[in-house]
Design goal:
Blueprint lengths: L7 H31 L23 E19 L4 E18 L8 E4 L4 E5 L4 E2 L3 E2 L6 E6 L4 H23 L2 H25 L6 E5 L17 H5 L4
Parallel strand pairs: 4-8
Antiparallel strand pairs: 1-2, 2-5, 2-6, 2-7, 3-4
Amino acid sequence: MAEPQPNRPIATLVAAIIAIVFAVVIAKVGYDKYSEKYVVERRDDGVAIDRIVRATFTGASALKVGSLSGTVQSTASDVRGFGMLASDKVVKAPFSVDYFVDLARMDASKYRWNQADRVLTIMAPDVTVGAPNVDESVTSISETRGLFVTRAAAEALARQVSVGARRTATSEARKPERIAAARENAQRALAKLLGAPLEAAGIGNVRVAIVFPFERAGPDDRWDISTAPEDVIANRF
């Protein structure tokens, strides 16, 4: 006797329902993304309102170890109307760029204890440069020149100066002397932060040394790992 065959119409219907559900979910996600970026929120009378469209909290384990701030000048130019409508813009605005060290990357393998010298060496990740913050709401100079500046040209100029200001601020923040200053301050901050538990545990006369990747000696370097870091903290050496 032949075995009973599954009910194909029901299986087909279930598959179709699942496909429809997936399509609806994808469409909803796409609509939400579109609404977030392009749909203007308005009151019942049609007036646009101030409101948070989307907000997401993200946890972080990065330690801020420095900040570069100052004033940035950014320029932009635009040509339209077959070269007859030329315009330019210059803006001066305050900026800041922060420097961080990602503490999440510092697991137990990054700690080395030298019993003879009583030195706790910490192989820290290098300093990273954060995104620049340019406050164009408090510009000291914002000049636009041109015989006739169209709305499209004004918007293009505004975008150019914003991008240019962030690019210039980032370039300044990444200069070798700025990175060196951030690393130096990071060493002090990390040594103070990580040395505090030793002092709290009553372990005195311990020097905390912070070593960045570019300062390490390479595969032939030898560390005294006779005492684990957790033993140092627990004062068991």
